[in-house]
Amino acid sequence: MDPVEALDRIAFLLERSLAETYRVRAFRTASEVVAGMSPDEVARRAAAGTLGRVRGIGPRTAEVVEEAVTGAVPGYLERLEREVGAPLADHGQALRAALRGDCHLHSDWSDGGSSIEAMGRTAAALGHEWAVLTDHSPRLTVARGLTAERLREQLDVIAELNERWAPFRLLTGIECDILPDGSLDQERELLDRLDLVVASVHSKLRMESAPMTRRMVAAVRDPLTDVLGHCTGRLLAPRRGTGQRGRRGQGGGTRPESAFDAEAVFAACAESGTAVEINSRPERLDPPRRLLREAVAAGVFFAIDTDAHAPGQLDWQLLGCARAEECGVPAGRVINTWTADGLREWTRTRQAPSPEAPSRKAPSAE
């Protein structure tokens, strides 16, 4: 087995299972180091037992490389495949197969753990035709939110990558904070340049229901908002067997749902054509099923997203697909099922590219 592939697969499975960041980093770092060595040097050091002397390679990662060089599947990888490599849900595969992309993912430009290139390449490897990079907006300083200047720099980086990545396409986007008055946390001219805008509440989550409802309704009615992200803001206890992610505010505790009038918010989404996100993060799974069914009844569009902060987390979409199927979300209302061009046209016109998707003026009675 190729040792770099073995190290990358282990890192992927650790990320997918919400393992501690330091564990993932050890395998990602070792993969980069080994990739920079010639195959002869790797084989020579593996035979001599000196891989552990190379900076960036520790005892566990050296053992993985040594086993891979002999042609064997490393024992640590075999164990991970048994423990956490199984499908994350028992159903949802049909809807997952219909998805063409992911509208919500982060890179190390904000609070993600991996480069834009690593996130894009993994999305393509998972079968996506496109993905939207949505790093945070400036006021979320704890997540290194992007200033307007840094976001403009990122747009240049994405343009350069897309020249090399065709036919896969990385679309431009942002996860924009919904400020307490319902406005969006970024320059409007810059938001208008982006392919897709996810708007989410990250602050003052304990507002009273009435002002929170006004805040969210104002945001989803903003013509620059395309997707309402993780609408309740809840955090669940970590799923058994997934471990801890070890990142601030993620995976290490619980948080109740924000209070708001869901009927009013979803009605505003249906009227404006703003999609409601089905967030697939194991510690979010937002919205809860009761609200997801309410959103279906309101006739809104949906985005089934991972909110991934590492490459392995891009595999979480099946969790959202399973919940969508349980709650009767029609595939025709899921914007991830559209082509990149169809999605970009919808964000500009709110005209769905598929005849199966309902008009925002006449929601389905399903």
Would you kindly provide a written description of the structure presented here, covering whatever features stand out?
The chain has 14 helices and seven strands. Strand 1, helix 7 and strand 2 (130-133) form a beta-alpha-beta unit. A seven-stranded parallel beta sheet has the order 1-2-3-4-5-6-7. Helix 1 (3-16) crosses helix 4 and helix 11 (262-272) packs across helix 12 (289-298). The model is unreliable at 240-251 and 356-366 (pLDDT under 50). It is elongated. Helices cover 42% and strands 9% of the residues. By secondary structure, it is an alpha/beta fold.
Question: Keyphrases for this structure?
Answer:
366 residues; 14 helices; disordered C terminus; alpha/beta; 7-stranded parallel β-sheet
Condensed summary:
The protein is α/β, with parallel strands linked by helices and about 375 residues long.
Task: Please outline the helices and strands.
Elements: H1 3-16, H2 21-35, H3 39-48, H4 59-69, H5 75-84, H6 93-98, E1 101-105, H7 116-125, E2 130-133, H8 148-165, E3 169-177, H9 188-193, E4 196-200, H10 209-221, E5 227-228, H11 262-272, E6 275-279, H12 289-298, E7 302-305, H13 317-326, H14 340-349
Parallel strand pairs: 1-2, 2-3, 3-4, 4-5, 5-6, 6-7
Helix pairs in contact: 1-2, 1-4, 1-5, 3-4, 10-11, 11-12
N to C succession of SSEs: HHHHHHEHEHEHEHEHEHEHH
Query: What is the approximate shape?
Result: elongated
- Spatial order of the strands forming the largest sheet: 1-2-3-4-5-6-7
The pLDDT mean sits at 93
Alpha carbon gap, first and last residue: 50 Å
- Based on CA atoms alone, the radius of gyration comes out at 21 Å
Biggest beta-sheet profile: 7 strands, parallel
Q: What does the oligomeric state look like here?
A: single chain
Structural class: alpha/beta
Strand content: 5-15%
- The number of helical segments is 14
- Using DSSP, what is the number of strands? 7
Which runs of at least 5 residues are low in confidence (pLDDT < 50)? 240-251, 356-366
Helix content: 40-55%
